[in-house]
Amino acid sequence: MSKKIKKCLPSNELLEDLCIRFVLNAPEEDQQSFERILFLVECAYWYYEDSVVENDPRLMSLPFKGFTCLLFKSCEMLRPYLAHIDDIFRDFSSYKSRVPVAGAIILDETYERCLLVKGWKKSSTWSFPRGKKGKDEEDYGCAVREVLEETGFDVSELLKKEEYIEITFRGEQSVRLYVVAGVKDDTAFAPLTKKEISQIAWHPLDRLDDGVTGLKLYMVAPFLASLKSWISKHPSPVARRLDKPIKAICVWNAKKATTTERSYNKKASKQSLKFNTLALLPAKESCSSA
Fold first, then answer.
1. Which residues, at least 6 apart from 252, have a Cβ–Cβ distance to it below 8 Å?
2. Which region, left, alpha or beta, applies to residue 41 given φ > 0 means left and ψ of -120 to 50 means alpha?
3. How far is CA 119 from the centre of its chain?
């Protein structure tokens, strides 16, 4: 029987190296506020989790706040602010909730199913693939990047910049989702990021409206009325399946993924695009179409 490895916290030397690499070496403008510094720390955190911990089984996997506290304690520049870490985290969470989001609503060839992704945590909800915009990033560029990272599918050739649904949540955060229609339901999907997506599945639109038992659809339901309106104006060229009920199809599951399917890109490269974010875009709920 193999001996169980005792887990340990990262050393001060490792934490100092991560602080230098991801925080102190960042452009000076990125060190001017704790909101921006926390984005840099988040990048260091995912690098630690995805690269360092994976290659050293002795190291302990940490929650983001726990890692941040250790980094602040080890980094001379950040150490004086450790006592205020709760306030810093609260402000950071508020800041992130205002960053504009972009993504895509991917429809199958009959426009009867849409592709949804589920987050990594047990408490995660189902949503359309989407994510926060990076500094100076266009909405469509963010949508293409996020969909690729979360599903492994490149929508750049199918995405039309004028076809989108946009909603502002709580009067603070705008979410723009481009409608990408006509994707074959046997398309291979697999996330390129690690520990972010646990499942990818095609879900029938009519069942989402009724509220499928067990599914959390808080980030899906607000878009359904506008999406159905879009579909009514853009009928599918492929005949709908009227002969039998359509069912949900799980196309990727982290628990069942093979080693080959787990050949992810480093999440640190993703986070590096998110060190800064654009100023909030004033946006009302809208459904734009040519």
1. 189, 190, 191, 197, 199, 200, 201, 261
2. alpha
3. 8
Res 257: pLDDT:
77
**Dihedral, CA atoms, 227, 270, 154, 286, nearest 10 degrees?**
20
For the beta carbon of residue 205, count every other beta carbon within 10 angstroms. Answer: 19
What domains does the chain contain, in order, with CATH numbers? 12-95 (1.10.10.1050), 100-288 (3.90.79.10)
CA dist., res. 15 & res. 251, Å (int): 38
**Residue 170: Cβ-neighbour burial (10 angstroms; 0-12, 13-18, 19+):** exposed
The pLDDT value given to residue 142: 97
Residue 1 is encoded by which pair of tokens?
Answer: 């029987």
Alpha helices in the chain (DSSP H): 12-19, 34-47, 53-55, 64-74, 85-96, 139-151, 205-210, 221-233, 267-271
Residue pair 143/130 in contact (Cβ under 8 Å)? The answer is yes
pTM (two decimals): 0.78
Q: Of 183 and 125, which is predicted with more confidence? A: 183
pLDDT, one tens digit per residue, over 237-266 is 988 777 777 888 999 999 887 544 444 444
